[in-house]
Structures are given as C-alpha cells and as structure tokens.
Amino acid sequence: MYESYFEMENTPFARNVPPEALYTSNAMADALGRLQYVADRQLFAVVTADAGCGKSTLIRKFASSLPEDRYIFLYLSDSKLTPRWFYRGVLDQLGIESRFYRGDAKRQLQRQIEIIRGVEQKKVVCVLDEAHLLDKEMLEEFRFLLNYKYDSESPMALVLVGQTELWDQKLRYQRYAAIRQRIDVNCILPHFDRYETEAYIESHLRYAGCNQQLFTDKAMDDIYKYSTGTPRVINRLCEKSLTYACQQQKKLIDDYMVKFVNEHEGVTIDA
C-alpha cells in the first residue's frame, strides 16, 4: 500500500530482495569472502549469529556468488535431521535415490561426489541451516563424513549455519572437541552499529527506487535503539513506520512515529 504513496518501484524491506541488492556490511563482506575460500578449498566452516542478524542473507549471497559451471550447491534446513535423512536429503538434491542404511547411503554420496569431481569437474558445497538444533549424533556424523581417503582430503565443502548457541552451548565444550578441531573457518555475524543501520535502510530504499529522504536522523537513532542493530527487526520497524506514515498522509517519518509504531505494533527483538 505504501509503495505507490512513496513512489517506489519495489518493496524495500521484503524478504525477497534480490541477493545483489542486499546491503553488505564489512562483517558480511568478510564472511562472504571466507566462505568463498571454503568453497574453493573444500573446507569445513561454521557461521553463527544471533537471531535475525543476517545468516539467511549471507547464505543467499554466498549461493549466488558460486558459478554454476564450477560448483554444485546443496542446502538443507531440518531441526530434526538425522544421519540417514541427511544422506537422503543430499542425494535427493543430486537426483539419486538413497539406499535405506546409513552406511550404504554414505558410500553412495562419496561415489557420486567422486563422479562430480572427476567427470563434471565441479566442487560440491553443502550448507546446513539451523545447525544449532542438531544433536550430537548428527554433528559427529559430519566428522566421519569428512574423514575421507585416510583423512587426506575432504569430499565437499561443508558449512554449518546456526544461532550463537551452536558455538556457545555446543561446539566449545569438551565433548565436541573432535568436531571443533576439524573446523577450518569460524564466522560470526555481529549486530549492526548505528552507521550500518542507516546504511542498511538507505540501501534498501535505493533498491526500492526511492530518491527522497524518508527518515529523520532522530528516527534513525530510534530504529537503531529499538532494533539493537538486528536487520530483521529493522525491517519490521521500517515496514510498519512506512505503513503508518502512509495512513497518516505523512511524507517524512520522525522519531515520534517510530516510537509509536514500536509501542503499538509489538515490534521487539523477540518478535
């Protein structure tokens, strides 16, 4: 509704903003570069961040950065993932019917990866999202999977993506030491600072085709304060503020409007 009122060509704070139009902070750019290195060298990486701090954005940017003639990108997101269903999910994406037993499915995957690498001359990159919900059995399976050809090489690039608790409440403890020691790259996405919050908002407004100032400096201050620099909450605050401004027939959003939206629309960190 507000898009036409503000003469926008696209919705600025939607979830389907194209990867190339998404704002890239310094931390995001660093993480993206490190993941591209992981893909090229077929390493094991872990990405963690608080909820809403850009993990999905990073995955989308990472996937879009991999040339299709050189990489096969696999993605799984299942809070109840077991080793058997992991192999089935990966093999399904490769167009192969998985065998029932875990060991057979694992050997299927390894053989298929050898074909992909040897015949197709491509590298496999597998991303597992919501990895903070995986149990110890599943995390241990990754260690066995990566123990390939007498531990001389890795069959694929493996990236675990999850909330901060993946590291703080699991991987850093002694019982996960064998897994932790295999991690080649560890990326942490922080919250935005005040400057990045404004840059993020302005970047998304440019994508929408909006060339006018819509938020006052004090409004930006409050958006940062209420969101604590969390992109997902910034999106909600901006979206609801734009809707409210449209309803009130206002062309400029000030701090009072942002405060009203935050108090009456239930826009909080836990939302």
Give the topology.
Elements: H1 2-5, H2 26-41, E1 44-49, H3 55-65, E2 71-77, H4 83-93, H5 102-118, E3 123-129, H6 136-146, E4 157-163, H7 165-171, H8 177-180, E5 185-189, H9 194-207, H10 217-227, H11 231-247, H12 255-264
Parallel strand pairs: 1-4, 1-5, 2-3, 3-4
Which structural traits does this protein have?
271 residues, alpha/beta, Helicase, Ruva Protein, domain 3, Rossmann fold, 2 domains, 5-stranded parallel sheet, 12 helices, 5 strands, elongated
Order of helices and strands: HHEHEHHEHEHHEHHHH
Count of beta strands = 5
Question: Cα-atom Rg, whole angstroms?
Answer: 21 Å
Low-confidence runs = none
- Proportion in β-strands: 5-15%
By CATH, the superfamily of the largest domain comes out as P-loop containing nucleotide triphosphate hydrolases
CATH class of the largest domain: Alpha Beta
